[in-house]
């Protein structure tokens, strides 16, 4: 076998997790090869944040990790080695300073995701990492319970360690695929069924379409019971009506849970409160005042200071009233129903998500119980490491997923480098 086909570490995937793993290992003196099946590195990263790349955020490691719910301690273990401050310093050191105009979300100062990808690739080259694009890894070779090589579209490579950083299934146009799950399950890892995450939701009701384009700043979305039927899930934030349903940050952030529930049932009911400022008593008082003082005004007009007109009309319709109903003609039953919709939420029936083509992240993937906290080492196969989105660990929108990819990639690359005999 020619010497070029022997590497200390082979990294599968040149997204943020794989490139960061390569830099961490390369800087520790390992001979590293990155195999990327696409023609170029970091395709998803290039499109991230609307082409601007929301790399991380200013929440602080502890709060940041808490947004991963039951996986927070797992994420925190990686952040302790390569956390938000370290990520910002790292990008500064490779001449891509980050800035947070809103004080929270960090983007490159250039506002160009391409500058992030180019700098990561250059940092790889600077420490001698070999990057092969168009190189599809098809299997991992194992001998006596440890990695000894990989097979790719062009041949076999001998190696001491392998980092799987293949990403998830989301956005196939931008390199999303199931290859990582196939490779991990070939060597015995269990995969939590992947479902689309950070994705818009399709409603059975057609009225949201009549509000398409309207966004509500502080919506409150609630699912009465989660997958295990135990407690209610809630999200607060922006909601955007689309032609076939709902989207916006609050919806995206609850979408993984909804997608998972839809695996076992045909529909999921959500309750959306559009305006949380007033409680039922205050709304009732207002409606009674409007009936007395502005009786010839339509209810829709009365609601104008609180809700966009088309949305107010749709909610009035939901009570069974005509949207032109005058305040003085609103029956007690309809008033109470409208107040209930305004305070407890309008019910929406979700039948599916917008699907893999639009999902920004994959929820599900390699079972985290089988990967060591803080090193990303496989607990099943020696010399195997797994990082980034291909693990059953995903966060909300706002820089969480790229940070997780970078942080877990760093841990995997550093730990893999320490396995190499000369290290
Ligand atoms: C439109 C969009 C916008 C986003 N915006 C943001 C954002 O602003 N902030 C944020 O935090 N997150 C964002 N995300 C999510 C974020 O981009 C991903 O979570 C992140 O890229 C995951 O990194 P990764 O390295 O794990 O996987 P990926 O970036 O998916 O990289 C994996 C790589 O592995 C390669 N690969 C797979 N299998 C093989 C194989 N067998 N052989 C060789 N190569 C292989 C793939 O081709 C791919 O290039 C966005 C996602 C999308 C789709």
UniProtKB/TrEMBL annotation:
Gene3D superfamilies, from UniProt?
A: FAD/NAD(P)-binding domain, HI0933 insert domain-like, Translation factors
Keywords, A to Z, come to: FAD, Flavoprotein
Every RsdA/BaiN/AoA(So)-like insert domain range: 195-361
Q: Which SUPFAM superfamilies match?
A: FAD/NAD(P)-binding domain, HI0933 insert domain-like
Instruction: Please tell me whether the keyword Flavoprotein is annotated for this protein.
Output: yes
The question of whether Flavoprotein is a record keyword is answered with: yes
Q: Tell me the cofactors it needs.
A: FAD
Extract the signal peptide range.
none
Protein name, entry field:
NAD(P)/FAD-dependent oxidoreductase
